[in-house]
Structure formats: structure tokens, C-alpha cells
């Protein structure tokens, strides 16, 4: 039995984890006759050598309702791509790997860049964008799910719960966002969501005033989760950032393009753990350091599209306001951890907040200093208008990579 809550913004489904995986999969098999389903897995080659992805594949082997699985493979040379073909070969679904660093897709990428339509920098957003293009070219799926490849606690029920609201033929949801408790090994995790996004949204409400967009983002229990499902037509019209701002960018586009009645979030796991990014204080291009910059810029860009203007003074005020909210939240998180028998390192939490506060200002400076920056990858609708046969040629390139010589 599923419980739900209408929070005034989007429908929130609770306790779907109480249903058995078998019962959910039996229904999803029936739904798949009307709404075929596919899955996108954005992956770095290094994740094939980690502890999580092999176990994820072992679970996906048992999933009976998927029509296809598309893997976006980044940072892989020829030998590594061949290894990946073997690694994923045990999947019984129609499975294709996008070798993003291979000569065929690189040539297509260069052509799009000549038209001013490519993704300017590599990253998860770029990977997902190309996978979305291939999904559209294959035409095998009308419902598309996506999740990360570093989930250490993965079990296939997570995917079933994620897909269910969008796949159900009597529901009108176009998009579903997954959420879960960020607790593992006796610790409270989810630092970027807890220590950056939540206090930043509250600070923006204070500095910019109440906005439906900020209330909307704040209604998601875990806006940075990498797990979501959507109708395939959503993939055609959204513009997303190429960097770590992917999740915020996707949510922002959905608010712009769809009725809130078509959006929902769902509880997909009782426990969730994945590879934890280092803070990387000394490396602005890595870890939570880079992530906080990209997320902050994504928020500033979206607010600018809604008519919000920023100055250097605004960003200094935002930094101070954020810092106060974040410190107050750390105390609340510490009490929450204590009550639940969890550990929380207040010193490292405050160090992370100090870094994030500094990055809010840095992201603001980058935003102001680069007014001509092209922040979003164009939608596939626009790309097809400029290069009508692009999806056909992408499909051919992927087929040759997966079935022919490379």
C-alpha cells in the first residue's frame, strides 16, 4: 500500500518501499505493454572497476520489464570500451553503450559544435544528454529511467519504485524524482544537499524575496538525487547544464515546461549509500568544491531567466545570509544525529560550509564576469531543427561501435 502527501507543490509518495519487489515488477510488466521502458546509466570507465556497478548489473539482469538499457561511457579508450562491451554483455535487455570518447561519436560531437550546438565541456550532463539523444533515436522506450552507477546498496526494487508513477497507464505524471534517507555506516551523509542546497534556497528566499521557483525546488526532499524517471517526450524539449548542475537544471526545466500536477517524487529506498566525493578544498576542479560551484551557478542562471538581477553586493549579502542559515542547520543536524544514534563531525561540517560560502561568492563572480557564457546544452528539438538527420546518424554510429569493429 502506498501513502502519498500533496504538499501544495508536487505529489509526494511515501512508503512505496513497503510493497514487495515482485508485486511491483508484475504490474510494471503489464504497464510495459502500453508504455515500454528503458534505462539510462551514465558511467565513467573507472566505475566498471569499482565495487558498485557489477552488483548493479547483477540486479538489472533480473529486471523483466525493461525494453532497453543505454550506458553512457566516459573516459574510456579503445581497449576499455571493448572491456565495457564484455562487462555489460550479460544483460538480457537490448543494451547499447555510447562510447563518448570514440572516433564516431567524437566526429558527430565536432559537427554539432560547428553549428554551436554541442556541449562545451565534458561531464555528467553531457553524458546524459547524448544518452537521451540515442534513446530518442531508438524509439524503443516511452518511459525512461536514470540512476547513478556508484550505488553500493542497490537493489532492483529501487528502479521499480522509481518507474512506477510514470509508467502507470492511468497516471498522468511526466516526471518522477526519487528520494531516500542519506544514512550509511552510522553516519548522516548528503552534505551537499544538507549543507549547500537547503540553506542556499532559504537564503535566496530572504535575499530575492519569495518566488514560486524557490518554493518549488525546496519542496523536493532530495533535489540532488541522481535517480529520476520521465516520459520520453520530456527528453526532447529540456535544456540541461553539462556539469554538476544537471539535477538542478532538469528540475528547473520541468517547472518551466510542465504543470506541477505532472510532477511527483517517490520514496525509493530504505537505505542508500554510494561513492562519497571528497571535499577537495585545494582543488576547485574536483569533488564537492567543483560541485558546489556548478550547482550555485545553475541556480543563479535560472533565477536570471526569471528576471532576478544580481550584483556583487547581492552575492556578498547572499553569502552572509547563507552562512547563518547553514550554521543553524548544522546544530539541528547534530541534534538529529544524536537522537538517532548517528555520528556527525561538526568540525568537518563547518569546514564544508565555509568552503561552500566562499564558492557562492566565486560562482557569483563567474556568473557576472561571463555574460556571454552558453550555460545550457541545446534541446534535442533545436538540434534536430538544425541537423535533421543527427539522431539517425547517432544511432548508426552507436550500432557500429557496439556490433562492429572499433
Characterise the protein shown here.
The protein is α/β, with parallel strands linked by helices and 406 residues long. Helix content is 51%, strand content 14%. The chain contains 16 helices and 13 strands. It has a nine-stranded mixed β-sheet with strand order 1-2-12-7-10-6-3-4-5, sandwiched between helices. A two-stranded antiparallel sheet has the order 8-9. α6 packs across α16, α8 runs antiparallel to α9 and α8 packs across α13. The chain is globular. The termini are far apart. The N terminus is likely disordered.
Map the helices and strands.
Blueprint lengths: L2 E4 L4 E4 L6 H11 L5 E8 H4 L4 H8 L5 E9 L3 H10 L6 E6 L3 H12 L9 H15 L4 E4 L10 H11 L7 E5 L3 E2 L2 E2 L2 H18 L3 H7 L9 E4 H6 L2 E2 L4 H12 L5 E5 L19 H19 L6 H28 L6 H24 L6 E2 L2 H7 L3 H14 L3
Parallel strand pairs: 2-12, 3-4, 3-6, 4-5, 7-12
Antiparallel strand pairs: 1-2, 6-10, 7-10, 8-9, 11-13
Proportion of residues in β-strands: 5-15%
What would you call the structural class?
alpha/beta
What is the radius of gyration computed over CA atoms, rounded to a whole number of angstroms? 21 Å
Widest beta sheet: strand line-up: 1-2-12-7-10-6-3-4-5
* Overall pLDDT: 91
Molecular shape: globular
Amino-to-carboxy terminus distance: 49 Å
Summarize the main sheet: 9 strands, mixed
Number of strands: 13
The helix-strand sequence is EEHEHHEHEHHEHEEEHHEHEHEHHHEHH
Helix content: 40-55%
Number of alpha- plus pi-helical segments:
16
Low-confidence stretches: 1-6
Amino acid at each position: 500500500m502506498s501513502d502519498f502527501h500533496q504538499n501544495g507543490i508536487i505529489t509526494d509518495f511515501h512508503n512505496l518501499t513497503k510493497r514487495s519487489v515482485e508485486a511491483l515488477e508484475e504490474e510494471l510488466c503489464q504497464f510495459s505493454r502500453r508504455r515500454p521502458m528503458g534505462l539510462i546509466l551514465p558511467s565513467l570507465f573507472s566505475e566498471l572497476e569499482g565495487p558498485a556497478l557489477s552488483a548493479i548489473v547483477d540486479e538489472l539482469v533480473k529486471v523483466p520489464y525493461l525494453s532497453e538499457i543505454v550506458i553512457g561511457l566516459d573516459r574510456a579508450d579503445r581497449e576499455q570500451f571493448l572491456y565495457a562491451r564484455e562487462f555489460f554483455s550479460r544483460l538480457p535487455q537490448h543494451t547499447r553503450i555510447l562510447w563518448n570518447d570514440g572516433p564516431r561519436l567524437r566526429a558527430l560531437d565536432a559537427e554539432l559544435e560547428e553549428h554551436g550546438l554541442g556541449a562545451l565541456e565534458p561531464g555528467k550532463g553531457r553524458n546524459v544528454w547524448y544518452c537521451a539523444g540515442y534513446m530518442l533515436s531508438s524509439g524503443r522506450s516511452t518511459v525512461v529511467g536514470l540512476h547513478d552507477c556508484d550505488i553500493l546498496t542497490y537493489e532492483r526494487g529501487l528502479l521499480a519504485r522509481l518507474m512506477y508513477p510514470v509508467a502507470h497507464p492511468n497516471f498522468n505524471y511526466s516526471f518522477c524524482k526519487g528520494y531516500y534517507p542519506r544514512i550509511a555506516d552510522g553516519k548522516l551523509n548528503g552534505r551537499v544537499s544538507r549543507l549547500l542546497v537547503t540553506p542556499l534556497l532559504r537564503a535566496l528566499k530572504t535575499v530575492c524575496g519569495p518566488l514560486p521557483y524557490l518554493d518549488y525546488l525546496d519542496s523536493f526532499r532530495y533535489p540532488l538525487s541522481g535517480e529520476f524517471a520521465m516520459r520520453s517526450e520530456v527528453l526532447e524539449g529540456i535544456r540541461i547544464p553539462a556539469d554538476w548542475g544537471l539535477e538542478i537544471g532538469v528540475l528547473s526545466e520541468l517547472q518551466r515546461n510542465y504543470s506541477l500536477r505532472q510532477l511527483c517524487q517517490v520514496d525509493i529506498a530504505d537505505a542508500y549509500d554510494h561513492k562519497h566525493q571528497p571535499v577537495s578544498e585545494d582543488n576547485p576542479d574536483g569533488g564537492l568544491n567543483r560541485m558546489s560551484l556548478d550547482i550555485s551557478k545553475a541556480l543563479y542562471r535560472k533565477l536570471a531567466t526569471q528576471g532576478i538581477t544580481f550584483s556583487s553586493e547581492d552575492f556578498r549579502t547572499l553569502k552572509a545570509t547563507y552562512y547563518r542559515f547553514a550554521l543553524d542547520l548544522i546544530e539541528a543536524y547534530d541534534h538529529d544525529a544524536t537522537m538517532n544514534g548517528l555520528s556527525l563531525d561538526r568540525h568537518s561540517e563547518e569546514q564544508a560550509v565555509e568552503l561552500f560560502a566562499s564558492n557562492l561568492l566565486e560562482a557569483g563572480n563567474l556568473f557576472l564576469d561571463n555574460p556571454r557564457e552558453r550555460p545550457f546544452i541545446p534541446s534535442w528539438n533545436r538540434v534536430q531543427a538544425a541537423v535533421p538527420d543527427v539522431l539517425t546518424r547517432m544511432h548508426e554510429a552507436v550500432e557500429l561501435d557496439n556490433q562492429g569493429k572499433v
